[in-house]
Structures
1.
Amino acid sequence: MNEWEIAAVVLGFALLPCLAVCLLAEPRSGLVALQIGGVLTSTILMLLAEGFHRQPFVDLAVVFAPMALVGSLLFARLMERGL
Amino acid sequence: MSWRSVAAVVLLVAGGSLELLAVLGLCVMRDAYDRLHYLGAAGYGALLIGVAVVVRESFSIIGDKSLLVGAILVVSGPVLANTTARSFLVRDLGDWRGESGRRGDGS
C-alpha cells in the first residue's frame, strides 16, 4: 500500500462518523454531514486515482463534485419548505 | 526520496488532517449552524490533496483533474454553507433575515 491508498482508507473510515450523524442527529445536521461526506468522497476518488494510477477514478471525482453540490442545494431547498 | 515526493506527502498529510478536522468538528459541535463552518475547511483539505497530486505527477491528466476537483470543492464550500444556512433560517424563522430583518421592515 502506498501513501495515497493509506490516505484513502483513513478518509474512508472518516465517512463513518458522517453516516452516524446522518442517521442519528436532527435532519439539519444530517444535511451538513451529507455535504461533508460528499467532499470526502470526491477526495477519496482523487486519492484512489493517484494510488492505483487509474484515470477513471478521477473522472468519477470530476463528475461527483458538481453533482454533490447540486444534490446538496436541492436538499437545502427542500428542507427550507419543511421536509 | 526526491523533494517532490516529500512535498507531496507533506501536502497530503496537511489536506487529510484538515478533512479529519472537519469530520471532528461535525461530530463535536452541538448546533447545525456551528457544524456548517467545517464544510469550507473540508474543501480546502481537498484542494491541498489536489495540489499534492500535481506536485507528485506534474500536470498530467490525473493532476489537472485533481486540481479541478479541489478548486470546485473550495469554491462550492462557502456557497453551499451560505445557501444551507439561509434555508435553515427560513425553516426556523420564516425569513432568512431573522428577527433583525423583521424589525427593519417594521413588521
2.
Amino acid sequence: MLRVSHLVCSRGNKPLFADVSFELQAGQALHLEGDNGVGKTSLLRIVCGLSPADAGEVCWHDKTIQQNATAFRSSLFYLGHGLSLKEELTALENLMSDAAVSGRILSEPQALVALARMGLRGREHLPLRVMSQGQKRRTALARLLASQAPLWVLDEPFVALDAKAVDGLRGLLAEHVAHGGMVLFTSHQPVALTRTNGDSVAVQTYRLKGVA
Amino acid sequence: MSGGAFMAVLRRDLLLAMRRKSEVLTAVFFFVVVAALFPLGIGPELNTLRLVAPGVLWVGALLSSMLALQRLFEADYRDGTLEQMALSPTPMPLLVSAKLLAHWLVSGVPLVLLAPVLGLQFDLSAEALVTLTLALLLGTPILSLVGGIGAALTLGVRGGGVLLSLLVLPLFIPVLVFGAGAVEAQASGLGAQAHFSILMAMLLPAAFFSPFACAAALRIALE
C-alpha cells in the first residue's frame, strides 16, 4: 500500500505545491490531474524517491520508501518522460537489457510476446532510431507487460499513441488493477479503464493545485 | 540477480559502443595521431625521442581518455536510463561499476594495446615497451575511475566539459608522473617496481571508492 502524506515541494524559491496527501490500496488506480507546470512530474518523481520532498513523506507498507528502499524499488515500475530506450539497440534488445537492469526475469519468447501485444510484430529487430515516436512509446510500454511490479507510476502514458494503442493501454491498466495492482498516472484527458471482458474499473482522481 | 544486472549493463554499454563506432574511434584515433606526429615533429634524433616517449604517450593517453569521459553518463542521463538505474533494486554503485568497466574496456584497453606499436616509433627498447604497456594497464583504469567521478559531478551542468577537465586534470597528474616515470626508472636501471606499486596503490582505492562516489553524484544530478 502506498501512502503519501503532507508533501511539500518547491523549485528554487518558488513553492510548487503543499500538503499533498493520498493513499493507494491494492486494486486501485489514481489519476493525477493538474495544469501544466503545477508539479505533476515533480510529484511522481518524489513518490518514486528520485527527488527529495521539502516536507512530508511517502510510505510503502507503513515504512518510508527510504527505509524500505530495496523492497519498494522491486515493487515499482516507473515510466517517466525519458523512455530509457537506446536508439542504437533494437526493440527486443532494449526490452531485455532494461528488464535485467531492473532486476526482472524476462525470457526472449516472453519479450517477443510483449512486443507483439503492443502491435510491434515484425519490428522486434529494428533499431529504435528508425521507429516513429509512437512506436518508441509502444516499445517502452511493452515493459509493462513484462513487469511483475505491483505499483506502476506512469507519467503521461497516453502521449503520442494512436487510438488503438490508447485502448490497448487502457485495457492493460484495467487488467493490472483488477488483479490487485496499483496504478498512479498523469494525463490531461479523462481516462476510463475497461477490462477486456467489458467490466469497468473505478479510477479515482486527485487534482493537484499549485500554491497561489 | 545483482550479478545479472551488472552483466546486463556491461553488455549493453559494450553493444552500444560497437554500434557507435565513430565515437569510440575518435578517442583512439586522437591518441594514434598525437603519438604519431611527435616523432615527425621532433626529427630523427633517437636519444631525444627515447627521452620524450613515455611522456608523450602518457599525455596522449590521458587526453584521449578525457575526450571519452564526457559521454560516460551523458546519454543515459538524457534518455532516462539513469533514472531506471537509480530505481533498480540492484545497488546503484554496482551498476555504475559496470559502466566504468565498460568505459575502460572501450577507451582504455585499446590505448594499452596500441602503446607498444606506437612506442616503436620512438625507438624504445623491448623492456621499455613492456614497462610502458604495464604502466598503462595499471594507469588507464585509474583515469576511467577518477574521471567517472568528475563526469558524474558535472552531469547536466552547462559547459560541463571545461569544468570536467579542470576538475579531473589535477587528479590525473600523479598517475601521469608515476606512469611516465616507470619507463624512465626502468631505463636508468632502477627498475619500475616502485612505480608499479604506487600505481597499484592508487588503483585499488579508486576501484573501491569510485563507484560509490559516482552513484552519490549521479543521484544528486537526478534530483
